[in-house]
Amino acid sequence: MNRTISVSPFSDQKPGTSGLRKKVPVFQKTGYTEAFIQSIFDSLDGFEGKSLVIGGDGRFYNREVIQTAIRMAAANGFGRVLVGQGGILSTPAASHLIRKTKAFGGLILSASHNPGGPTEDFGIKYNISNGGPAPEKITEEIHARSQVIDRYMIADFDDVDLDLIGTFEAGGMAIEVVDPVSDYADLMETLFDFDAIRTMVAGGFKVAFDAMHAVTGPYASEILVRRIGVDPALVFNATPLEDFGGHHPDPNLVHAKALYDLMMGPDAPDFGAASDGDGDRNLIIGKGVFVTPSDSLAMLAANAHLAPGYKDGLKGIARSMPTSGAADRVAAKLGVEMHETPTGWKFFGNLLDAGRCTICGEESAGTGSDHVREKDGLWAVLLWLNILAARRQSVKQIVEDHWAEYGRTYYSRHDYEAIETDKANELMAALEETLDTMAGRQTGSMVVERADSFTYHDPVDGSVSRNQGIRIFFEGGSRLVFRLSGTGTSGATLRVYMERYEPDSARHDQETQAALAPLIEAAENLAGIAGRTGRTAPTVIT
Ligand code: G6P
Ligand code: ZN
């Protein structure tokens, strides 16, 4: 039996960079989750009788929301839902499942790399039939709908046993609980030379992987350990936990410090990697060398043809605006299109669908390709391993060769987390006001060449996205970017992105923060971060 239940709108249901993210107690408010899911369904047309994929990263509250979503899908008229066993689907695996089964769309329950637990973060994101995050047009409709919603529809049936693989029927709808790993693992085997990687590993090449107690544990166990032969003792934190063991499942140098220390130590394995809460991000570290996400994108793009799935070359490369220009140099050399999009994977969807790019990446530790419509952590790990197996070189050699060939882009991001929203907005507004008079300004040893607020014109559908971050270009090719995070759940996070291009290989071994010191100083001078926020140092440096 279906019920229609009255509900009043919640004023705070505006999806951010990647869906709606809030603290768990917010989602637990009576009717809150239901109102948002109903707003999604009300914004979609023509799903009657079609399939919906539902899965999440296993964090606290995942199972409860999955049961609610299943009952609401039934009452709203979906014909079938596909759910990952245990409620688990990594974000890239969910994207693949939507594409493979030609589903109408999917609900991905995750707050990515944010912490989990009863007072921590939760999130709901809607993905469309191409497997990618809903474009802004749809997220804006969802938000508009959430502001006037007055009822939701839900079916009355018992909880589905999410741990039992099989097909069930409830509320007039088919419910398929599927193995979350096997389809995805099979897809990876079509893209990469598993034989070559296996041979390399069998020959003593040591691979370490930190699943951070998040969703990639089962994927790493199947793909890296069972199909490739990686030593299970080097696959860390492979059991998904609802609170990620109390840690941030964020694969950066702060939260994956144990892996970093291992890779920098005397007994370092040859290759180390980590992924985040929902499995779409990656961290790549070679023996004694950290590869920045911006560099990783460039290096993967330059070498992708060595993997079977990309042997015919790339159609183009895309990166988010704050990501460094390292990939642009690869695109220029390959003679393929290069695209610069706003932050957020959803902006790559049109380019990928239109065949205008094959590989995309972001400074925020996301890399992926046209195999799905999400960024993909294990994909990046496997492409690196495939390249290493084909080139028979160390990560360090590949990195240094790349810099020698293309020049090195020193790159860093400084985050100021949980600052007061008003102060953050004021800082951005003040910067914006100085944009017109910025050119020619001298700060320390740096001279501003031009400055703007980034606007994206989507070349495929013609849509325009404004206010995507402030860019300050300096003479000599350095760049500063300021933007506010769109994924936080408390206060505002100011991100300052710095890059400096160094063509001379005699100067490729500087320490990154030292190489960027003039830019760090310029950022403070131009934005007055300390004066406006009271913060004299960033919370996180990556
Ligand atoms: C999520 C999105 C990414 C985006 C990142 C940036 O992870 O999936 O595409 O790059 O958020 O988030 P921010 O906090 O900088 O808005
Ligand atoms: Zn993520």
UniProtKB/TrEMBL annotation:
Lineage: superkingdom: Bacteria
Stored InterPro entries: A-D-PHexomutase_a/b/a-I, A-D-PHexomutase_a/b/a-I/II/III, A-D-PHexomutase_a/b/a-II, A-D-PHexomutase_a/b/a-III, A-D-PHexomutase_C_sf, A-D-PHexomutase_CS, Alpha-D-phosphohexomutase_SF, PGM
E.C. numbers: 5.4.2.2
Catalyzed reactions: alpha-D-glucose 1-phosphate = alpha-D-glucose 6-phosphate
Pfam families: PGM1_C_vert_fung (PF24947), PGM_PMM_I (PF02878), PGM_PMM_II (PF02879), PGM_PMM_III (PF02880)
Location of the Alpha-D-phosphohexomutase alpha/beta/alpha domain: 13-149, 183-285, 294-406
Keyword Transport on entry: no
GO molecular function, one term: phosphoglucomutase activity
Keywords, alphabetical: Isomerase, Magnesium, Metal-binding, Phosphoprotein
Cofactor(s) this protein cannot do without: Mg(2+)
Keyword hit for Isomerase: yes
Family the entry assigns: Belongs to the phosphohexose mutase family.
Record-linked PANTHER family: PHOSPHOGLUCOMUTASE, PHOSPHOHEXOMUTASE FAMILY MEMBER
Name recorded for this polypeptide: phosphoglucomutase (alpha-D-glucose-1,6-bisphosphate-dependent)
Annotated source species: Hoeflea alexandrii
